[in-house]
Design goal:
426 residues; alpha/beta; Rossmann fold; 2 domains; eight-stranded mixed sheet; five-stranded parallel sheet; 15 strands; 39% helix
């Protein structure tokens, strides 16, 4: 069996390596020539050491990066589906392009699997017509289905091997072909959906549920603050109920999935009202974090703030839709090459950003000592292990002020308070 993986981003490259390390001949295709050139040099450019080594093993064995798509028994599409803000939905340009690319090399008997996160109906309503523009009939000549990835950055390899999978095929033969493809590679269970549209819906439902649950926790944090209650203690007590499992509050949600996927469910009927409100709650949390800071230091004028942690969550390198980065942008001028700097009304340089995990070279990250030197306040934007291990006495010796805002619950509040810090939390 041969496989061609279309799209060598984080998930596509990991997926290609999974099959290659299992002994399958895999071609990895990406339209970005720099990605292919880098992989041919043995550089996966991933931040997880275990995954990096795993990909390098694949490159040394059965994974061949290619500037051109190749005919294969199986085509797996793992291309991006960005959020189109103007149209409040998914931009399916890459999926359509990948479909046309696959169609050019598709043969009778081949299997096509879409893994990208897409709105319900994409596999059958958009991809299938593109693939069947020639003489091949979907379901008769070509197997087609949808199976989403559900891995968590930072633990990609383990979850790729162990998570359950959902398979939705256009017919029983497609389901059988796709199940037999993934079953040998995962210790998780393969669940069969009624059709590709159901499988697409389920992936979005999973991420929308998490977004709503986080919004509920954040709402409780806002309410508890008004009552003078420690919300984390209250949530811990509430979770003693056998049917209650409230998540922890935070400065918002980030990454590619949770802030984006709920929008893919919008069908114009107004049925997504709850999802829309949840997104609004979470998107406003960075502003609330700044209000916590303002309450602590009275005025932001002429103050210097260090934002520590601008990845979207703790112990990952991804900065997409990061609440910590949004906090920094709202506070002052943070330069990102692909987006005009935002002016928060402060002087240039009044906000410093540091992150030991972030790999985005477009950001003006500085070392920890530089970030906190002379700072009036510190805001923790991501719960990295490195921040939990910080010595508050050492940080105090470098800062001008004594204000710390920790919406991600990463530091020992009592320990920092003992060192004279005014610690504000959610």
């Amino acid at each position: 069996m041969s496989i061609c993986v279309h799209g060598l981003g984080y998930i596509g490259l990991a997926t290609a390596s999974l099959f290659a390390n299992a002994g399958t001949d895999v071609t990895g295709f990406d339209v970005d020539e720099c990605v292919i050139d880098r992989l041919n040099e043995g550089d996966p450019n991933v931040s997880e050491p275990e995954l990096e080594s795993y990909i390098q093993d694949a490159l040394e064995s059965n994974l061949t990066p290619s500037h051109r798509p190749q005919p294969a028994d199986v085509h797996i599409i793992c291309v991006p589906t960005p959020y189109d803000e103007l149209n409040d939905g998914a931009d399916l340009t890459y999926v359509k392009d990948a479909g046309r690319t696959v169609a050019n090399v598709l043969r009778s008997g081949d299997t096509v699997v879409l893994e990208s996160t897409v709105p319900p109906g994409t596999t059958t309503g958009i991809l299938a017509p593109i693939l069947s523009q020639g003489d091949l009939e979907i379901g008769e000549d070509v197997h087609l289905g949808y199976t989403p990835e559900t891995v968590m950055p930072g633990n990609t390899l383990t979850e790729l091997r162990t998570n359950d999978r959902i398979v939705g095929g256009v017919d029983e033969a497609s389901v059988s072909a796709i199940k037999s493809l993934y079953e040998p590679l995962t210790s998780g269970e393969i669940h069969v959906a009624a059709d590709p549209t159901t499988a697409e819906f389920v992936k979005l439902a999973q991420n929308a549920e998490r977004n709503v649950s986080i919004a509920y926790a954040n709402t409780l944090a806002l309410l508890a603050e008004n009552y003078g209650i420690d919300v984390r203690s209250a949530i811990s007590l509430a979770n003693n109920h056998p049917r209650v499992d409230i998540l922890s509050p935070g400065p918002g949600v980030g990454g590619h999935c949770l802030p984006v996927d709920p929008h893919f469910l919008s069908d114009g009927s107004g049925a997504t009202e709850l999802l829309d409100i949840a997104s609004q709650v979470n998107s406003r949390m960075p502003e609330h974090v700044i209000r916590l800071l303002e309450d602590a230091i009275d005025s932001l004028e002429d103050k210097t703030v260090a934002v520590l942690g601008i990845t979207y969550k703790g112990n990952v390198s991804d900065t997409r839709n990061s609440p910590g980065l949004e906090i920094a942008k709202l506070l002052g001028t943070v330069t990102v090459d692909t987006r005009p700097a935002m002016d928060g009304g402060w002087d240039e340089g009044s906000v410093t950003i540091h992150d030991p995990r972030a790999t985005d070279s477009r950001l003006q990250l500085v070392p920890l000592d530089v970030a906190v030197d002379g700072a009036d306040a510190v805001i923790f934007g991501a719960a990295h292990d490195e921040f939990a291990a910080l010595d508050p006495e050492d940080i105090r010796s470098k800062m001008a002020g004594r204000t710390v805002v920790d919406p991600v619950d990463v530091i020992d509040t009592a320990q920092w308070t003992e060192q004279g810090f005014d610690v504000r939390t959610l």
